[in-house]
């Protein structure tokens, strides 16, 4: 039974499971499942094999239950397998190591036979886990539909097992072990397998919020919440600390399922009170409730008190972490559906109307309104939304306007003619079916309006288009937009990296993608990359650019893998939590860079998606993502230095990018071999 109804949220985070601690021998599993489902849990994390089992010649695997005791749909929908926790594939004891490998393969084979969707494999027993990862990687290569979730404690803990004793004996001031490092080592050894995920054990203490932030860029599928992590409120019921609440709400927002684990530490009687329904405030009569039902009710309370997804998020939810190729508006003619989507963005056109109104007032004083007609050219008019915004601005300010609507797409021109006739604008609007770079204007314009911006500002060739169009702008003419700047930010984005890796070629790693970023960890504040201003009448003007940027990671972030560049906040509960703060550090993984833009339309009217200044409720642009061929390990306190180029040729424009520090990468997209924008 889902934790509750939240408008717009159809993710797996609505479902909560419970871990079965005692081996359900015989017919125990169906009874445990029935009891748990009747108590409103949605699935079980259950052991598949007797934990006392050790391989012996001719022995039959002592499974928890025959495949016949549950239906195929019950196995698939309500059971997540738990692999035996005694398994230790990196043990110094050779017999234990061999037994562990055989048992792991047997249990995974049984789980595959049951058609389970996922199995939780135990955490590494020590910091060196190469053999464990090797065996798991071999298994992953044979799996098709099942996922493996590596269980990792969410803590900054002391060194593990015998490593702990060795370190303590040799170095009493030894550093603690970062559990993210265990995961990173394991997934690197497993070649970033797309079927390897994380199940995080949530304990009573948590690392710093910056350290936690790294996990939001990782493939976390489950948060196993220990009952020991709960506090007790004034009424004797379980509750969580503010930090735990923030973390769990963040997981809900990132489609992470919660699994409650442990023994009940709260003596709460629910038989007499009944169980609170997930959807309405009434009680249901149930004979006996699950011992962990109070913890489940608290999870439902946390989920239900979250704000509904905003309308913009609901519109964008199907695009989360979905890689799209940027538009090629000069090479290709947009389709009607694309035009319609962009035209629904009323916020964007409201900003344009404000900018045009201010420009009209500056161009024509109140004394001249009855004698002066302003010439305004809309270059790239599409199906007419900017024409409408211009005429509405003229009506709002009481100025007379003559509009030239220039559009190269002959299909959009047909719609534009219909709009002009329908609205009765024939006397005010002249339609020009031509490329703005080739048209010879009959007169000079006072105001030049365009909507040629891409997710990175200049990536849809606004500079090249406006350079060609500014020849018919008066010397004192106004360009809207008047300037725009691009930004980048380093990120960890495991899902995006795996999706690109699936293409199995270099070209896709040298392509920039438009993507609604969701499962990412933002590693440092964004920085400016390229800027353009219009009009630019300088004879030495060039649209080629080169810049180098250095990002300093906050001290308590930790080491990381960087997969790319971008910027957006981590939207936890009602808090916007960023990974960049200060204090001690941990390593991270760099996956690439994401890009944004901010544009000044006119004077104080701006438009953009750079998060510090982003225009609220605007959905025309998603960030752009520049991947790295290989994720880069960034040690603690190491700066990230990246170089970016904007290159121009006779027929195309392209970007090149390369990492210099902490370790050099190849120059991506050299000479525009994989990705370019055609002129």
From TrEMBL:
Q: Which SUPFAM superfamilies does the entry mention?
A: S-adenosyl-L-methionine-dependent methyltransferases (SSF53335)
What does it catalyze?
L-arginyl-[protein] + 2 S-adenosyl-L-methionine = N(omega),N(omega)'-dimethyl-L-arginyl-[protein] + 2 S-adenosyl-L-homocysteine + 2 H(+)
Segments forming domain PRMT5 arginine-N-methyltransferase: 311-480
> So which domain of life are we looking at?
Eukaryota
Q: List each copy of the PRMT5 oligomerisation domain by range.
A: 483-566, 589-677
Q: Which positions does UniProt annotate for S-adenosyl-L-methionine binding?
A: 339, 348-349, 407, 435-436
Q: Does the keyword Methyltransferase apply?
A: yes
GO CC annotation, single:
nucleus
Recorded GO terms, molecular function? protein-arginine omega-N symmetric methyltransferase activity
Enzyme active site: 451, 460
Name of the molecule in the record: Protein arginine N-methyltransferase
Q: What is the lineage of its organism?
A: Eukaryota, Viridiplantae, Streptophyta, Embryophyta, Tracheophyta
